[in-house]
Every structure is written in structure tokens, then in C-alpha cells.
Amino acid sequence: MRRVRGTVTSLLAVSLTQFSLLHFGSDAFTLPVRTGSGSLAGNGKYRYRDSTFVSVATTDDEASAAADAAPSDSAAAPQTSPPQSDDVDVDRPPPRRSSSPYSTVKAGIGKWEEMHGNYLLRPPAETEPRALIHFLGGAIVGAAPDVTYRYVLERLAARGYLVVATPFNLSFDHLKTCDEVIAKFERIAGDLARQYGAVPVVGMGHSCGALLQILITSLFPDTPRAANALLSYNNKPVKDAVPLFEEVVAPFFTAIAARGNETWYPSGTVAMALAVRLGRAAAKGEIPSNDLLADVAKFVTPKRLSSIAPEDVALPSRVRDALTTVVDPAAGALESAGVLPVLSQAVDVLEQIPLLVEEVADGATDFNPTPSSVRAAARRAYRARRTLLLQYDSDPLDESEEIEELLREAETVMRMKRPMISIDIQRRVLKGGHASPVLAPPVDIAERAEDILGAETAKERLLYAEADATVEELARWLDEGQL
Fold first, then answer.
1. How confident is the model over 417-473, as pLDDT tens digits?
2. What rounded mean pLDDT belongs to the chain?
3. 49-87 in b/e burial notation, b at 16+ Cβ within 10 A?
4. 435: alpha, beta or left, given left = phi > 0 and alpha = psi -120 to 50?
5. What is the longest distance spanned by two Cα atoms in the chain?
6. What confidence score (pLDDT) does residue 403 get?
7. How far apart are CA 311 and CA 313, in angstroms?
8. Distances in Å between the alpha carbon of 93 and those of 142, 160, 194?
9. Nearest to residue 20, comparing CAs of 195, 190, 250?
10. What contacts 426, CB < 8 A, 6 or more positions away?
């Protein structure tokens, strides 16, 4: 194995083909990633060193296992040995917001931050994160994970975990969604590496998010995970996931998006898009722009009358100023009360609907990859060493038992190549239904209720006992792994 000294010069020398390598902990794989990428390799541990990410493989078995998992174009990538004694880590700053000029951090709801298209939740101040949880939510609600999964994720952060929740728009093309999720995560990885050093990355997903984590771990070898926690996993075809899809939903969506007869009005998706834009302005506490008002006027004007309708529609400046004077104080109050951020997230969720209608109208009839292709990928290429499958006893959509069998087959396939490698798979059944991780109030409200009513009574009356049990099971499994 080629030895690489811990200097930036020698590191750049082995990156002549526009690849750079990431440094992870002592038990990491070696996998090439794109230059400038913040994606993580091996067991998901990474470290930022001398402004360069470096990858280290500690054993021939691990390096070979990585090569087996990596795509063919990575076979020629140089492998490196562990850092020598003169390879010194950069001093790690205490956990705080990044000072990087390339980091964009905006305040979010409660303790959340918005950073490079991700929602970030840090562990308690001056606490070294025990692991980084990369969370993906379910269909539709995954567009606003910091709201819909707020209770579960904030409870985990309070236990010392760094949480990155990446929002995504639901699509029939799961591979495209994975690409978008990984691209967002890569943009935040560098900033977090600079702040926290080597941190194991745990993939966590609910429903559709669990499926995406399976695809990422199986088909994207430059984005591995130390472990995966999959809640309410399901991989059903569209016709089973959406009742009456072929008979009712698809024809209805096609009719809504129809563009053939625009004598009177444009397609329904145009109306939806305009409604979303108006909702976005309202969620920001703003008066709609003149461009938006003009688009609305154009939409509501029948085509046969468009020739006599005014081309430009604008609020007089005095009227706009007067309205702004009235709206701004109310918007400021709603912003301070946390109402506007929640409304903005609600718009994010609704924004997916016209996109889905267009996909169906354009001929989408099933997911890409198909359920059978997902099963084949999981069986042949799943690589996470530890996996927790959480299912709920009243969830008709759950397919955790099926994926458990496939992952055990994946372990058999892996052990045929590398007998020393094992995959730990646990499946737990909790009380609840498919939406249990979502059905919970914000943590601060739950804590106040518990102070007044007592913990058990509060959980029963506010209906978050199942979400709380989910947190406890996830925490048990994470602690057991000693990440």
C-alpha cells in the first residue's frame, strides 16, 4: 500500500485526476470522491485537516472491501496508509457556528439553523457530538423535516447528537432525489468537519426517507454510513402506495394539468403555482410583487379578453407603502412568535403538489428505480455495518420484515467476498402507526405539559407517547453502537 505523508503537497500529488480524498477515523474505507465534495467515506467518519480532506484505510481487507463496493472508475484511485506521527490534526475549535465566509447560516425555527439547504440542530453547547444523524423524512412531510419531525430530532440532539435534516421534494424519480439530497449534504459537510472533527455519520429515515437511505447506502458508494436507522420502511409500487392511482388519481391529475384547451384558462398546475407564490409572499409577511400581481391578473383574464386587458398590473407606490406600513408590524409580531417560519415550511410542503401533478401528467406510472430494482440493489450492494429497523404494530404500509431478509442476504453476499465482515441488523416493533414519529408537539410545549400534568399524563393527552418511545429506542440503539 502506498504510503502518503501527512502534508498538503503530497496529498495534492495523488489527486491528479481531479479527485480528492476524505480523512475519516481509524477504521475507515478508502473511496474516491469528487473534488471539493463534502461527501463522507468509509464508516462515515471524517476529519478536516490542513484545509484538505484526506482518506485513510487501516487494513488491506478494508481497502479491498471499499474497492469492491466502489464503481469501476474508482479502481485506479490511490490507496493511502494511516497518517504518520508527523501528521498533526488542526486544533479543533469549540462547537459553534462556522466562521467560514462560504457558510450561509440562517436562524430557523426554535434552535434550528438553515445552512446550505439543510436544517441543522446542534447538541448542547460545549458538547462534542457523539455522531452526526443525517435525517430524511417521509413523502410530502420530508420537505419540512424541522417542523414535522421536530420532537424526535430535538430529543436526539439533546442527547448529544448533531442532526442534519435534508428537505426534499417528493418525486417519482428516487435517484434524482438522492442526487439532490447528497448534493445538499455535501455542501454542509465541510463546515461541520471544520468545527467538529471526526464524527461518525448515521443515516436515519422515515417511510420514503428510509427507502432513500437504502438507495444511498447501496448505490452511492462515495456517501457511506456508519449505520442506518430505518423507520416504517416501505417500498411499494405506486399502485399499492396510492389507492386508485390508475383508475382515479392519474386521470384526474392529467386533466388538471391539461394544456390542450386554453381558450379560457391555463392549466390547473399554473393556478397551483400562483397560489404557492402568493402563499410564499404571505409567509414572508410581504405584499405581493407587481410581477406576481401581473401574473395573477393574466391568469384570471380569459384568453379571449387578453387583447384588451392591461399588460402591466402594479400597485401605486403610495398604496404599496401604506399597506407595508400596516403589514410590517403584524408580520414582525408573527415572526417573533414563530408563526411565519412555520407558514413558510407549510408552503414548502404544498409546493410539491403541482410538481407531482406535472409528473403524472407527463406519464409517470411508477417509481424509478422500481421496487424490484430497489430490492436487487439492497441485496447485492448494501454496505452499512449496523442497521436498525423500526416498525409499528398498526402500520399497514410497513415492509421492514421484507427489507430485513434482503439485508441478511446482503450480509451473506458480503461475507463471500470478505469473511471477516459482518452486518448487525436489528428489528424492533413498537406500538403505533405509520405517522407515529410525526405526531408530537414541539419539545418545549411537551416539557411544559409534563411539568404541569406529569410525564405519562402529558404523553397520553398530547398523543406523543409513541414518538417518545421511538426516541428511546433510537437512543438505545445508538448508545449500544458506541459510535
1. 888 877 899 999 999 999 999 999 999 999 999 999 999 999 999 999 999 999 999
2. 78
3. beebbbbbbbeeebbbbbbebbeeebeebbbbeebeeeb
4. alpha
5. 80
6. 97
7. 7
8. 32, 17, 8
9. 190
10. 387, 388, 389, 477
How is residue 94 written as a grid cell?
469549540
- Residue located via cell numbers 420532537: 151
Confidence of residue 374 (pLDDT cuts 50, 70, 90): very high
Query: How far from each other are the two terminal CA atoms of the chain, in whole angstroms?
Result: 28
**Identity of the residue numbered 278:** L
For residue 96, give the C-alpha cell. Answer: 459553534
Cell representation of residue 310: 392591461
Cβ–Cβ < 8 Å for 244, 411:
no
Nearest by Cα to 268 from 299, 311, 305, 243: 299
* Confidence grade of residue 175 (pLDDT, cut at 50, 70, 90): very high
So what's the pLDDT on residue 265?
Answer: 57
The sign of the dihedral angle between the CA atoms of 294, 296, 297, 303 is positive
The CA distances from residue 459 to 150, 387, 443, 466, in Å, are: 16, 28, 11, 8
